[in-house]
């Protein structure tokens, strides 16, 4: 791949353009808002100048509702040898293109499974896709050349290609991406009118659950309206669990011991099903989930604190598998939760105590 055209210079389009430009591909940028394309170009993502002839690959990075029309214009204009989109929904746009009677041999629907709460070119980074799954949904007539161009794009962006059927992809993202966004927003919405005394008690749990609720509503309206059926199917199952759980919790208020025990059993069943589902989430490097232990270290909010912890762990010969910070409300301090192999936890705790760190059990 020597030349590319990126149509749509938001977070995803600009990140792709930055990655390609950094690896020597000449990238042309296009957007319905010239100012957005100008910003992406200023960041080093490519040039606003139109290509003089067909490019190797046109990347359509627009909202799902606009994919079909944008791809159709690009194909009819002969802008590239191959065309792909990077929208988060795949089945609908392809059916729209088929309804237009377009020859889709040169087109491939894709979806990089990466993003941020922030949108727009200023949030873009060339490493956004590194190590992240990038779904490819080739059709029966997809040209081998186009598939190879798509695989090259994924490689240049350091992503991990995953081939799926378009409708299977939409059902999958409804479960693992779209529904979590709605659930996060529903929980966060409860905080809007909550008492200040309650909000001040927010800990890491509520921060984890509501993190993606900060996402751009306009962007998510585009996504959710493009995949309503599969999302509604998942939410329907969750609604059943919610109704059962409400009834179970009401039963726990009853003076009838049989009702109380029935409520306990139902809640316990839900929690255990949650345990089983959580255990299926892929672990490090996509491998099967591993059992880890957490060593919690009290840290102050000073430059270099985390670097010192990592250095001390390294000197102790312990590999830190993951880390997160739980901030203390109203204090310039918090807990650094270091995730390690179970056998390494006692060694790390002892080594850090020797170096003057305060360990929380």
Structural write-up:
- The N and C termini lie far apart (53 Å).
- With 361 residues, this protein is an alpha/beta fold.
- It has 3 domains: 3-164, Rossmann fold (3-Layer(aba) Sandwich), CATH 3.40.50.720; 170-278, 6-phosphogluconate dehydrogenase C-terminal fold (Orthogonal Bundle), CATH 1.10.3660.10; 293-360, VC0802-like, CATH 3.30.2130.10.
- The strands form 2 sheets. It has a 7-stranded mixed sheet, with helices on both faces. A 4-stranded antiparallel sheet has the order 9-10-8-11, with helices on one face.
- Strand 4 (80-85), helix 4 (91-99) and strand 5 (107-112) form a beta-alpha-beta unit.
- It has 13 helices and 11 strands.
- 48% of the residues lie in helices and 17% in strands.
């Amino acid at each position: 791949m020597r030349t590319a055209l990126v149509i749509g210079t938001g977070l995803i389009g600009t990140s792709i353009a930055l990655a390609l430009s950094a690896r020597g591909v000449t990238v042309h940028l296009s957007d319905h808002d010239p100012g957005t394309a100008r910003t992406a170009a200023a960041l080093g993502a490519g040039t606003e100048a139109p290509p003089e002839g067909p490019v190797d690959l046109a990347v359509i990075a627009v909202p799902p509702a606009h994919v079909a029309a944008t791809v159709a214009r690009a194909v009819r204009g002969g802008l590239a040898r191959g065309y792909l989109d990077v929208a988060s929904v795949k089945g609908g746009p392809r059916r729209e293109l088929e309804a237009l009677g377009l020859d889709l041999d040169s087109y491939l629907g894709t979806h990089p499974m990466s993003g941020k709460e922030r949108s727009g070119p200023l949030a873009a980074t060339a490493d956004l896709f590194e190590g992240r799954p990038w779904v490819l949904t080739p059709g029966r007539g997809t040209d081998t050349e186009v598939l190879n161009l798509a695989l090259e794009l994924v490689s240049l962006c350091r992503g991990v290609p995953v081939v799926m059927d378009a409708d299977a992809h939409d059902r999958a993202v409804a479960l693992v991406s779209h529904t979590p966004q709605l659930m996060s927003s529903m929980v966060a919405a409860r905080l809007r009118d909550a008492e200040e005394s309650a909000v001040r008690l927010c800990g890491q749990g509520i921060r984890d659950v509501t993190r993606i609720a900060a996402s751009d509503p306009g962007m998510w309206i585009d996504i959710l309206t493009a995949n309503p059926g599969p999302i509604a199917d998942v939410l329907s199952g969750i609604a059943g669990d919610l109704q059962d759980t409400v009834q179970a919790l009401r039963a726990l208020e009853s003076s009838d011991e049989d009702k109380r025990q029935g409520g306990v059993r139902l809640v316990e069943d839900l929690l255990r099903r949650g345990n089983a589902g959580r255990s299926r989430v892929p672990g490090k490097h996509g491998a099967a989930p591993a059992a880890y232990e957490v060593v919690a270290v009290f840290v102050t909010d000073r430059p270099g604190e985390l670097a010192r912890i990592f250095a001390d762990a390294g000197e102790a010969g312990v590999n830190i598998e993951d880390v997160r910070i739980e901030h203390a409300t109203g204090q310039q301090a918090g807990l650094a939760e270091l995730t390690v192999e179970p056998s390494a936890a006692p060694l790390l705790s002892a080594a850090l105590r020797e170096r003057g760190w305060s360990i929380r059990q």
